[in-house]
Amino acid sequence: MKSAPFGNPPKKELPFINITSLIDVMFLLLIFLLLTTTFNPKLGITLNLPSAKSSEEKQIQSPVRIAIDKEGRIFASRGESDSLTQVSLSELEKLLADIKRLPNLPQVVLESDENVPFKIVVAVLDIVKNNGLTSITIATKNVEDNLIN
User: Fold this and answer.
1) Which one, of 84, 101, 102, 73, lies nearest residue 40 by Cα?
2) For residue 98, with 0-12 CB atoms within 10 Å meaning exposed, 13-18 middle and 19 or more buried, which class applies?
3) Which of 139, 78, 87 is closest to 105 using CA atoms?
């Protein structure tokens, strides 16, 4: 080992990595991720709603949403804040039976793809009516919106 002047050993320099620029890059990646991510409440369920001339926009407080995609899969949620989860007809009946016990019955919003067989829609409507939920809204898109697309 070499000695420094006056017999003291030289000081070893510890390796130093400047991470300031790495932190900047991480923040930029985080901001990019946040800006490019879309938050879809329907969680990837794409529905091509049927068109109707009498379609009107309506605001409903905490509805029970039931969606049927083009493959005939049924999705349901308890309220506006809940996400849609896939359910079978028997699970839908249990969910609606639980909702039936609530003091204020919510409105049901049925969203169905226009290519869904009618028998599936009728089966869902039958379950809804059998559970005492008579306030049902069927989601459609306006004919004028259809002409633009």
Assistant:
1) 84
2) exposed
3) 78
User: Looking at domain 51-148, does it have CATH number 3.30.420.270?
Assistant: yes
SS3 121: helix
In angstroms, rounded to a whole number, what is the distance separating the alpha carbons of residues 81 and 110?
16
Q: Where are the domains of the chain?
A: 5-36, 51-148
pLDDT in tens, 103-112: 787 888 898 9
CA distance 138 to 142: 13
The whole-angstrom separation of Cα 119 and Cα 1 is: 89
Helix, strand, coil fractions of the chain, as percent rounded to 5 = 35, 15, 50
For 4-59, what is each residue's pLDDT tens digit?
Answer: 666 677 677 788 888 888 898 999 999 998 888 766 555 567 777 787 777 777 77
Q: Which two tokens stand for residue 113?
A: 């793809």
Cβ–Cβ < 8 Å for 139, 81: no
